[in-house]
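Q: Hi! First time doing this. I have a protein sequence and I read that you can turn it into a structure. Is that right? Here it is:
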Amino acid sequence: MWEKIKRMGSIVLVLGCCALLVLLIGLYIHGTVWLGAKSYSWLRDISIAISVLILLPLSFIRCTRIFAAHGLWLMYYVYFLLLWLLGLLLTYNSWGAWGVFFSLLLFGIGPIPVAMITTLINGMWLDFADLIIMLILAFSTQAYSINVGRKAAQEQ
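A: Yes, that's right. Below is the predicted 3D structure, encoded as structure tokens:
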């Protein structure tokens, strides 16, 4: 009798832990979407302004090239974070929380390709162009920071 009660208690405990895990994942998704919706546009504008108005001119001055290379490398990570956030927002708007959950199962980078697919399927051409522009911006920032870093290393 006690064995059956212990087994039932273990099953209830496992089911409770699974329910708690699903609740935490749901809160994570909704919290990230809420924060991303509030902060994406101004984060994008600030990061582009820092890159173009501060770091790009510093990359032409010989004594500040190493600082510009490190700053541009940091901006590369910021652009990829913004790209991931944009992909998450577009996936959430197109397919909802379950679409985001399944896209996050793709090693965490899933919202970017899933958002590209959803924007193509739904004919959201401007959003697709925004994703492509952010992707090009991220990779070009990385390439330029490597180039500036090599120039700074050759001059020292």
